[in-house]
């Protein structure tokens, strides 16, 4: 008895050309610009404010921040100077923080002379510092309101913020902790027509 077998060919899918990533190459700014900076809160206003009227939620607080470039160790990437030079400022409007729930954020300002605005949310993170006077959270914003030549962007924060009581100054710090955020801002350039 003869056995018959069939060989089925897998469908052929076109794959994009993948280039080796030049790990040590200088970042080209043709498609993306990446900014990393530190925020320092300079002012806090509780309640709704005129600047927060454009937010898509009822604002509970408005904060103002100055932005600084940072320096890291070349061999370790550890932050060694978190206040190298001023690079911009922004205002942020926050919705009321719920117990364990994300809360809205609307922000606008400038970084390296580039105006932007953004919407998103912030959330507390599971690992918390061992100090009860600081809280760790992260914020993610969709960036818009950019000048011509940019197509959008994304901002994310790694934040450790002092717990501010009613009488605490806006720029309060807890010794041993970097207030307030280390921010990564990625801006995408408008693609050239093909």
Structure explained in plain terms:
By secondary structure, this protein is mostly beta strands. The chain has one domain. The chain is 0% helix and 47% strand. The protein contains no helices and ten strands. Strands 1-2-5-6-7-8-9-10 form an eight-stranded antiparallel barrel. Strands 3-4 form a two-stranded antiparallel ribbon. It is globular.
Mean pLDDT: 87
Q: What about the largest sheet?
A: 8 strands, antiparallel, barrel
The geometry reads as: globular
**Count of runs of 4 or more consecutive helical residues:** 0
SSE ordering:
EEEEEEEEEE
Summarize the structure in short:
The chain has one domain (32-189).
Topology, element by element:
Blueprint: E1 32-46, E2 61-69, E3 71-72, E4 79-81, E5 86-94, E6 103-111, E7 114-124, E8 134-144, E9 150-162, E10 181-189
Antiparallel strand pairs: 1-2, 1-10, 2-5, 3-4, 5-6, 6-7, 7-8, 8-9, 9-10
Brief descriptors of the model:
194 residues; mainly beta; 10 strands
